[in-house]
Write a structure and sequence with these properties.
Layout: E1 4-9, H1 15-26, E2 29-32, H2 33-46, H3 55-63, E3 66-68, E4 74-76, E5 79-80, H4 88-98, H5 101-115, E6 120-123, H6 127-131, E7 137-142, H7 145-158, H8 165-181, E8 194-197, H9 203-216
Parallel strand pairs: 1-6, 1-7, 2-6, 7-8
Antiparallel strand pairs: 3-4, 4-5
Bound molecules: 2'-deoxycytidine-5'-monophosphate.
Length: 219
């Protein structure tokens, strides 16, 4: 039992970390829908199924088994692919698969099935607009560009990736633009979405704010 919390937001607003920690705090499942698109992409690349609508991709979608474990690990047909799906070649390829209506249809259906019993924090661009339009809590996380640049830069530096603020800024701008241009299958802007500005908030404060909102909505 529990409510459905739909979290969406701009690149670098802290969606993933916030969704994961919020789920932990509430004892909910974290439905990382990006990980599902990534796992599909990994399976397709391995089996050399191109990102075009057709029988090969349809068969793959029908056979695919993606498990999101409570500990955050992602399994593809039983194999732990948590690291493999974060590799740059997957990040580069995933958009081409995620753009296909037949892929979105299959993913949305599976996500709705996973969220049907409630008790989930669902994270991804189309959560409030397409997948869970009747979620008890729908949130869009936003933050100033410069704050997002600093966060992403720190995150990459911590991982040992050498980059510059300029490069990170250009990358975030490009991804913002892609998000604007991409069709996530929504017929219009979602209703009842609360915009939460996370500029100046720590992750802990961000999670506390959402947890308070979730409690107001019955979590
Ligand atoms: O959040 P992420 O980087 O793990 O997402 C991976 C890709 O999947 C990214 O290109 C956006 C896409 N995606 C999507 O189209 N719909 C979702 N609900 C989640 C992710």
């Amino acid at each position: 039992m529990g409510i459905v919390i739909a979290i969406d937001g701009v690149v670098g607003a802290g969606k993933s970390t916030t969704a994961r920690l919020l789920a932990q705090r509430l004892g909910y499942r974290h439905l990382d829908t990006g990980a599902m698109y990534r796992a599909l992409t990994l399976a397709a690349l391995r089996q050399q199924v191109a990102p075009v609508a057709g029988a090969a991709l349809e068969t793959l979608l029908g056979q695919l088994r993606i498990d999101l474990e409570p500990n955050g690990r992602v399994r593809l047909d039983g194999e732990d692919v948590s690291e493999a799906i974060r590799q740059p070649q997957i990040s580069r390829a995933v958009g081409a698969y995620a753009d296909l209506p037949l892929v979105r249809l299959a993913m949305v259906e599976e996500q709705q099935r996973l969220g049907a019993a409630g008790g989930v924090v669902a994270e991804g661009r189309d959560m409030a607009s397409v997948v869970f339009p009747r979620a008890e809590l729908k949130v869009r996380l936003v933050a100033d560009l410069e704050e997002r640049v600093r966060r992403r830069f720190r995150e990459l530096s911590a991982k040992g990736v050498h980059t510059s603020l300029e490069q990170v800024r250009a990358d975030i701008r490009r991804r913002d633009q892609q998000d604007l241009e991409r069709d996530y299958g929504a017929s219009g802007p979602p209703a009842g979405v609360l915009e939460v500005d996370t500029t100046g908030l720590s992750i802990e404060e961000q999670v506390a704010r959402l947890a308070a909102l979730a409690r107001q909505r019955g979590a």
